[in-house]
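Q: Could you fold this chain for me?
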Amino acid sequence: MDLANLKNEKVSEMAQKLLPALLDAEKQVVADYQIVINKQGVGFKGFIPATFGTQAAAKFRARTGVYLKQTQNPPRNPKNTPDEFEANVLKKFADPSYPRQGEKILSETVDGGKAVRVMLPLFMLKGCLPCHGEPKGEKDISGYMKEGAKEGDLAGAISVKVPLAK
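A: Sure. Below is the predicted structure, expressed as structure tokens.
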């Protein structure tokens, strides 16, 4: 999908407005962290996927009013604690019989039809394991305790709540 030229893509009018706003928020987060990212002589910069995601979601929500967060149960960061809807969906995603391949998104209309909730599961990839893998209980490079996860385990989910057009 060409985010620079969405008018030629088969996406909704709302998506044509929201996707560029998300991309702009992500670019701003990276721009904000340039001093840290480019600091010489420092190996670990603390600019981990969770930090990027949290900051981008906050900027996106401030610009658009669309609820966007990463969540997991239990979360490393208490700000990512799942609400009731998210906790229920995370249980479904954690079920070993839940498909691990393809885009397996769950969504439902909420608030009396005024909004839609969407959750996209995130599963552990090989690149996640240095911080989230074995040995369980050992501190990772960011200072958090490793969870003992394995490739394919549920890592969490991206949660979105979008108001529906009136």
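A (continued): Residues 66-163 form one domain.
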